[in-house]
Design goal:
The chain is an alpha+beta fold. The chain is 14% helix and 24% strand. A hairpin with an 8-residue loop joins strand 10 (197-199) and strand 11 (208-216).
Length: 492
């Protein structure tokens, strides 16, 4: 328990409530199924110039991708259902759901091997047999495509609409292959940019935008020292004095840009709640003799979809939920979050921080129940983004004007930038530092939180300048082979 609570301190999980940084294999079932593990969820008014009437939704999956992770790399699970949910009337239930389904197609490229006249056609074992260029993916041996369905109302019983390419009927979209390396993909960003789509939305003439593919992991945290019992030299030291443990890692991103009026039901309530989930079929039968086609797959799956991963404000499950309840939390819905209320109102984390750093004069807040944390993470802050719901998900007040990239504060609301976290979440919001300061009482009086005005930090800094200024905002994934190919194109 102590190790769990210590981790909570510096990874940005607010004391036993809904936290905010990155979620990495946080529950027993997820450790066995990393392809359905949600790592981070972002929801913010688009700050690309001219796009301020849009909301960007980013759901990241499949954590800790080492760029050199061949030969199969990081394809999404074709048996899974990946979803982004929006509550636009404050009842803690989804009103709009965007459902992603993936499909893999093996091209089956082969080479003729053997002596002349006795050659044998042999299938190649690798994903590509040559460079993959913008406009020419003929060397690619495995194609990954996906579809997007919008559901109005209940995610399982509501009205479903297949989303198509703007101006047409195309409903199958291509996910760019992961960044294998600079020899295979000499211009990855140009290649991946082909798969940024304008999409039709039902009931409106306005279009959305979509990109699904690998990106550089945007979450920044001093993870190693955090897990080692908050092994920081000084949690009140320089805000940029430590390493980002996720530097060089990639993640798979499902990114949508949707008009505000569409998500808010034409402005009926400017505050929306959002979260992401993944579901798998209830039944799985393993095939002891898998074959080369889908009828002899390694497993056959069927039955209803069952939710097995959930993420709104991340790190809740890793460092808040008890070990025996982690899979239960992943299967739960926001409307049932009252069962986790005690984790918010009576946190142990601040007391542990005081024990560890009392020599530096650190004192935990002494006010219970912690209604400040309930407001920030479970109900919304009055006058900012309260929507009447008690639920662990991101809330965004779409009436609050956009902060342009150059004027965004990485500390969001606690630094006066009300367009940032916890009013939604932007890529440049330093949620770890925000979390540390809020958990130690930044929103309380000095009498109730003697250390509440101290600038706690994990030392790994993030801000808006580390990201692109336009959709899809997250930057090019790290290549598996960073060096350029030899000038001659020959062997190294």
């Amino acid at each position: 328990m102590i190790a769990l609570s210590l981790l909570l301190a510096l990874t940005g999980a607010f004391p036993n409530n809904g936290s905010e940084p990155s979620s990495h294999r946080e529950a027993p079932f997820v450790t066995e199924n990393p392809k359905i593990d949600a790592t981070d969820f972002y929801m913010f008014r688009s700050y690309e110039p001219g796009r301020e009437n849009m909301v960007t939704l980013i759901a990241n999956y499949l954590p800790l991708q080492d760029p050199y992770g061949g030969p199969n790399y990081f394809f999404m699970d074709p048996e899974a259902l990946y979803e982004i949910h929006i509550d636009n009337d404050g009842d803690s239930q989804e009103d709009i759901t965007f459902q992603f389904r993936f499909k893999n197609e093996i091209v089956g490229q082969s080479l003729m091997i053997g002596d002349p006249g006795n050659e044998v056609s042999v299938e190649v074992p690798v994903i590509n047999t040559g460079p993959i260029l913008t406009g020419d993916a003929s060397a690619l041996n495995l194609l990954e495509t996906y579809s997007l369905t919008m559901v109005s109302g209940d995610r399982r019983t509501g009205t479903k609409t297949a989303i198509s390419l703007a101006g047409g009927n195309q409903t199958e979209f291509t996910k760019p292959v992961d960044n294998i390396g600079n020899k295979s993909l000499p211009d990855y960003e140009g290649y991946a940019g082909q798969f940024l789509y304008d999409i039709n939305l039902p009931g409106t003439e306005m279009n959305g935008r979509m990109f699904v593919g690998q990106r550089d992991d945007p979450f920044v945290v001093n993870l190693g020292e955090t897990f080692d019992l908050i092994n920081y030299t000084d949690p009140l030291g320089p805000e940029d004095g430590a390493q980002d443990s996720l530097a060089g890692k990639n993640v798979t991103s499902l990114i949508l840009e949707i008009p505000i009026s569409f998500l808010t039901n034409n402005g009926a309530d400017p505050v929306i709640g959002g979260w992401t989930t993944a579901s798998l079929r209830q039944a799985r039968v393993l095939n002891p003799f898998p074959g080369p086609n889908s009828k002899k797959a390694a497993s056959i799956e069927g039955g209803a979809f069952t939710q097995v991963s959930r993420l709104g404000m991340p790190l809740v499950n890793e460092v808040v939920i008890g070990l025996s309840q982690k899979d239960r939390f992943n299967a739960s819905e926001p409307m049932n979050d009252a069962q986790f209320l005690s984790f918010v109102t009576n946190p142990t984390l601040p007391e542990i921080i005081e024990i560890l750093f009392s020599g530096a004069g650190v004192e935990a807040p002494n006010l219970f129940p912690r209604d400040d944390l309930v407001q920030v993470f479970l109900t919304g802050v009055p006058g900012l983004n309260d929507n009447g719901a008690t639920a662990e998900y991101l809330r965004l007040n779409t009436d609050i004007p956009v902060s342009p990239l150059a004027s965004q504060s990485r500390l969001g609301v606690i630094d006066g930038d009300v367009a940032g976290f916890p009013n939604g979440r932007r890529p440049g919001d330093d949620v770890v530092d925000i979390a540390l300061r809020v958990v130690m009482g930044r929103l309380l009086s000095e009498d109730d939180a003697p250390s509440g005005q101290l600038d706690f930090t994990d030392g790994a800094i993030v801000d808006a300048t580390q990201f692109d200024a336009q959709f899809p905002y997250l930057t090019t994934p790290n290549p598996g082979s960073p060096q350029p190919p030899p000038p001659t194109g020959g062997p190294r």
